[in-house]
């Protein structure tokens, strides 16, 4: 039995969404964050050596890392759907944006967050450089979403499922305004209109409205 | 013609190594870092919107992101070698460690580096939390390399090629000592003994000895 261990308001929402888009038969186990520090509770950390969300179990298998879980589910339970294979249109765009999500976008958002927490002053040159990089990253996504409705082209793929968390729920942790990026905002409206995304967000975090507007939640 | 644009002392060494392990026919174009700030020179940044290493060109294609390039080369030029497919032993280990490299390991090394540059004092609670996470990440790699000689099992795969940069050349930028992790050190000696790794490092950075010892370069 495939079980998805979802930590509330975390990257594991990607996998809930993926399961809903693929129409998989899965059990969702939901875990609340600790009230004192917003981290994963001990029973979540005990599931896997790294203790980070997402985690799935499938028979004897315990697997972490969003990218690994997405590839695993698509290959073993999803009949290859939502991936783009060699020879299909959008193959290299798919590869680029799938890996860009956790290789470039999410790290730069986290860097700005951590550096602001360490020292938010304007004389912090490391923070200023990180903010410049943040703007370059978002400009690059903005440009891509002016060329195509989804990252790999005309249809939603797992590359979109990998990237959307950093543009939405991540803004609970690092509030930032998407007003400078109209293509990204229009993209989030397309995502928010998808029945599978709506079902996923309702199951993943029933008390949280999806974070799809320009202004971050207060 | 496949051209690999290698920025000296950067993550693009992964792709030089991958090309050598696969025995590909490729052209290596090497770019020196700027002397004033150690960043990529303007002609490197001009190759791709993000301007980050690695970048390949292949006919009309311009592709960035290590993970995307590795998957692309293995699929289109490497006949699937160095990847582990569904049904083969080590499939889920391969997926996990391949994605762990840039999804978890490299970001935590960068976080510690940036936070130390912003404020290295011991009262910096954000830095202390990042250091704890750094130790958890390295302990997890150490444990894995006590179970198997390579990350996916008995043989070298692209998961190893993704991870080794953060354990070696990255220590020029964020010096850290690997003495607490004997399995990782023994692994680096196995890597350093590979003819393809030796050829790659000689081509990528002929003036730099591979960073394989416990102590970081001074």
Can you describe what's shown?
Two copies of one chain form a homodimer. Chain A has 218 residues and is an alpha+beta fold. The first copy, chain A, is built from eight helices and four strands, in the order E-H-E-H-E-E-H-H-H-H-H-H. Chain A folds into two domains: 75 residues, 3-Layer(aba) Sandwich (Glutaredoxin); 104 residues, Glutathione S-transferase Yfyf (Class Pi), Chain A, domain 2, CATH 1.20.1050.10. The first copy, chain A, is 49% helix and 9% strand. In chain A, strand 3 and strand 4 form a beta hairpin. In chain A, helix 1 crosses helix 8. The mean pLDDT of chain A is 97. The interface between A and B is large, with 43 and 43 residues. Chains A, B: One of its GO terms (molecular function) is peroxidase activity. Chains A, B: It comes from Cystobacter fuscus (strain ATCC 25194 / DSM 2262 / NBRC 100088 / M29). Chains A, B: Its EC number is 2.5.1.18. Chains A, B: It catalyses: RX + glutathione = an S-substituted glutathione + a halide anion + H(+).
What's a quick, concise take on this entry?
Two copies of one chain form a homodimer. Chain A is α+β, with helices and mostly antiparallel strands and 218 residues long.
